[in-house]
């Protein structure tokens, strides 16, 4: 996303927040209380403005705070007892080819920020804050969603209360217009942001990012289908400790903007024998990684960046420049043997049994230029040469004649029927068989 477009998104979001926050106070609540300052008015508006102030503050911090970048020259500690995050194929430390640097655990590359973001909270660059959500601003992002829900709920409660009172008395037309505009603006925001915030609160309880939540869904599908055994998520510390890892150790400061603890380069892991963590020492090749691989998918090895294709100096590729002796050309004799087979199709006691011919070994001196594929009477004879296939010309009439003779002269295949003449009348009729029917009709008419 471009810098100008990102600023437009941030400006639109800020304008929408200010409209929903301040237009009802000026055009709805203030006329409702008679445009006079009172204790009831202050008791109604002070909590609402406090929620709006916290909302804008956390939104500002989420926009301007760097989500976290990998320090230049950072390398994983391979001697650490907790291990390090590994790649699926090479089982070595994760490496970002775009940044040309190692990637810490839970870090992912952002194309918009053009760097690897520590603990990337969303699977893409967030346009509404014009920033990535990472380790150092994820707490501000969660608080911002929380205050949006609280402020919109308070806003709707005030509007509904005003409409209920207005049913008993008349109110001005501008007030009605702003009631409709605020309802149209606030209700969709509450529904959209409310559903989105509930999802992120669920991820917060599991100490999971959006990318890791997608990975957990894939692992659950593989476990349900029986392809892999159940594997525990390595960063799940329990609901309480998960919240403390993002919002701070003190519950009294969970709603107050605080700086995230830690460096974002290393995270506490779950304890227990049933936890199969992704941070594994390279000396343990049997350890499993997170996310686990799908056994049905064979991963392709990564290409070697240093490999350069070069043509061989000679077209021959076997040892000293000669032809591979194991390569046997498919000439006519070999194709015929492969078609007929070295074994007989019938058992030895069958009348048609013939001794199978021995397979003639390939002789390099023989040439396939003089051998034809096919047998006499079976169809076109094809010869394979160095420039392709050559079909020998055939006489179709002679081919058909040989086919008919081969079928009719086979002993015991056909029985010829010779009719016997039973009477003289039938014999006379038989003599007329050679005369066309039309000629016979004309002759009979002439006689009549």
UniProtKB/TrEMBL annotation:
Active site: 126 (s-palmitoyl cysteine intermediate)
Annotated TM spans: 6-29, 41-60, 144-164, 176-202
Record bears the keyword Transmembrane: yes
Entry's localization field: Endoplasmic reticulum membrane; Membrane
Entry's Gene Ontology cellular component terms: endoplasmic reticulum membrane
Swiss-Prot/TrEMBL catalytic activity: L-cysteinyl-[protein] + hexadecanoyl-CoA = S-hexadecanoyl-L-cysteinyl-[protein] + CoA
Recorded family membership: Belongs to the DHHC palmitoyltransferase family. PFA4 subfamily.
UniProt-listed PANTHER family: PALMITOYLTRANSFERASE ZDHHC16 (PTHR12246)
Protein name: Palmitoyltransferase PFA4
Organism of origin: Daedalea quercina L-15889
Taxonomic lineage of the native organism: Eukaryota, Fungi, Dikarya, Basidiomycota, Agaricomycotina
């Amino acid at each position: 996303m471009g810098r100008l477009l990102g600023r437009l998104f941030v400006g639109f979001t800020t304008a929408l927040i200010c409209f929903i926050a301040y237009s009802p106070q000026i055009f709805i609540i203030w006329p409702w209380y008679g445009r006079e300052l009172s204790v009831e008015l202050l008791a109604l508006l002070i909590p609402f403005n406090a929620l709006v102030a916290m909302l804008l503050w956390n939104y500002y911090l989420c926009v301007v705070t760097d989500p976290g970048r990998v320090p230049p020259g950072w390398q994983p500690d391979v001697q650490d007892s907790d291990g390090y995050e590994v790649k699926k194929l090479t089982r070595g430390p994760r490496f970002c080819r775009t940044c040309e640097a190692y990637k810490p655990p839970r870090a992912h590359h952002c194309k918009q920020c053009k760097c690897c973001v520590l603990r990337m909270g969303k699977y893409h660059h967030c346009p509404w804050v014009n920033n990535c959500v990472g380790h150092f601003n994820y707490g501000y992002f969660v608080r911002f969603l929380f205050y949006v829900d609280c402020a919109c709920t308070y806003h709707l409660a005030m509007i509904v209360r005003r409409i209920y009172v207005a049913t008993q008395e008349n109110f001005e037309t501008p007030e009605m217009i702003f009631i409709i505009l605020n309802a149209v603006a606030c209700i969709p925001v509450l529904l959209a942001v409310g559903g989105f915030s509930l999802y992120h609160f669920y991820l917060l309880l599991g100490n999971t990012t959006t990318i890791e939540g997608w990975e957990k869904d894939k692992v659950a599908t593989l476990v349900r289908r029986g392809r892999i055994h159940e594997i525990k998520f390595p960063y799940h510390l329990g609901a309480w400790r998960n919240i403390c890892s993002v919002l701070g150790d003190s519950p009294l400061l969970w709603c107050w903007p605080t700086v995230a603890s830690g460096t974002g380069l290393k995270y506490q892991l779950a304890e227990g024998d049933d936890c199969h963590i992704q941070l594994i020492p390279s000396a343990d090749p049997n350890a499993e990684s997170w996310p686990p691989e799908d056994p049905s998918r064979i991963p392709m090895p990564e290409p070697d960046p240093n490999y350069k294709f070069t043509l061989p100096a000679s077209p021959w590729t076997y040892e000293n420049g000669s032809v591979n002796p194991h390569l046997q050309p498919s000439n006519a004799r070999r194709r015929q043997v492969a078609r007929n087979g070295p074994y007989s199709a019938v058992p030895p006691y069958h009348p048609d049994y013939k001794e199978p011919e021995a397979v003639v070994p390939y002789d390099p001196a023989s040439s396939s230029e003089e051998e034809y594929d096919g047998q006499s009477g079976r169809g076109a004879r094809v010869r394979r040469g160095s420039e392709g296939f050559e079909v020998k010309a055939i006489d179709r009439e002679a081919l058909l004649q040989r086919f008919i003779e081969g079928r009719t002269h086979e002993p015991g295949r056909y029985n010829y029927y010779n009719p016997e003449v039973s009477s003289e009348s039938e014999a006379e009729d038989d003599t007329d068989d050679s005369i066309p029917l039309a000629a016979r009709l004309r002759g009979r008419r002439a006689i009549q």
